[in-house]
Amino acid sequence: MSAAAGIERAFHMLEGRWKLVILFHLFGGALKRFSDLERAIPGISQKMLAQQLRQMESDGIVRRIVHPQVPPKVEYGITAWGQTLCPALDALLSWAEQGPETE
């Protein structure tokens, strides 16, 4: 796979307005219920949150944990592979905070 194809694949997995925000709330191994994520991310609709979580679960970034109880309890967490994104996103945040230098 070429570098361009690799970066395109990575961006495809992370595209969407909310995926990086969702990941921010899951970094560090925190397990969150759907309602916790919904409260933590103002402006996201239930439909969009569910869609973004399903896509990241399908890509292996997020795991969905269903506890067999009544009423059902579902939690979301980041996978070990998804956790490896943290340093890259920290670097991106640092880059953005530096802003363009004036010459």
From TrEMBL:
<dbReference type="InterPro" id="IPR002577">
    <property type="entry name" value="HTH_HxlR"/>
</dbReference>
<protein>
    <submittedName>
        <fullName>Helix-turn-helix transcriptional regulator</fullName>
    </submittedName>
</protein>
<keyword id="KW-0238">DNA-binding</keyword>
<keyword id="KW-0804">Transcription</keyword>
<feature type="domain" description="HTH hxlR-type">
    <location>
        <begin position="5"/>
        <end position="103"/>
    </location>
</feature>
<keyword id="KW-0805">Transcription regulation</keyword>
<dbReference type="InterPro" id="IPR036390">
    <property type="entry name" value="WH_DNA-bd_sf"/>
</dbReference>
<dbReference type="Pfam" id="PF01638">
    <property type="entry name" value="HxlR"/>
</dbReference>
<dbReference type="InterPro" id="IPR036388">
    <property type="entry name" value="WH-like_DNA-bd_sf"/>
</dbReference>
